[in-house]
User: Which sequence fits this backbone?
């Protein structure tokens, strides 16, 4: 064991010297190129997003034909595809139409499937309005000054 100490000391000195050298002629930093997302091909895009029915604009997936059959007799499908809602919100719209607009009653299974389709493909969206400007960034209000005088 005693014989190991000089060797260890040499290694330590060597490390100090090496790290000193490394600082002096450090190689130029290489920056890895950012990872590129996988290239989207028509095939992968089709898998991600359902096709759109040309006549109604509905996403052609799941129970879309059930929705087409029950929801486009009185008004354009656009009224639906431009709308967004949770399951509860879609149910509320259906109840309103049943009460006020002569929409017929659905059997529970049909209603559940219609609402599930709508809430999945036309869900609520994040608020699109910008946040209010903070008071300290607002320009002075000239009318405020008038009111004070
Ligand atoms: C019996 C006729 C009828 C059927 C069938 C019908 N609706 Fe309606 N719906 C109406 C009427 C009438 C309005 C009001 C149209 C207007 O304001 O111009 C309306 C309005 C709407 C609106 C707009 C609500 C709003 O707040 O602006 C949505 C969304 C809607 N319907 C979705 C649906 C869905 C989903 C179905 C299928 C479950 C459906 N409708 C089936 C009659 C119907």
Assistant:
């Amino acid at each position: 064991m005693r014989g190991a100490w000089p060797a260890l000391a040499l290694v330590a000195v060597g490390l100090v010297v090496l790290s000193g050298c490394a600082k002096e002629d450090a190689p130029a930093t290489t920056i890895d190129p950012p990872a590129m997302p996988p290239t989207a091909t028509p095939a992968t895009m089709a898998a991600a997003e359902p096709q759109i029915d040309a006549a109604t604009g509905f996403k052609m997936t799941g129970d879309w034909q059930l929705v087409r059959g029950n929801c486009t007799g009185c008004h354009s499908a656009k009224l639906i595809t431009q709308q967004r809602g949770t399951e509860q919100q879609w149910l509320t719209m259906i109840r309103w139409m049943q009460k006020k607009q002569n929409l017929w009653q659905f059997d529970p299974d049909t209603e559940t499937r219609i609402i599930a389709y709508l809430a999945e493909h036309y869900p609520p969206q994040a608020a699109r309005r910008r946040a209010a400007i903070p008071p300290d960034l607002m320009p002075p209000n000239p009318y405020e000054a008038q009111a004070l005088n």
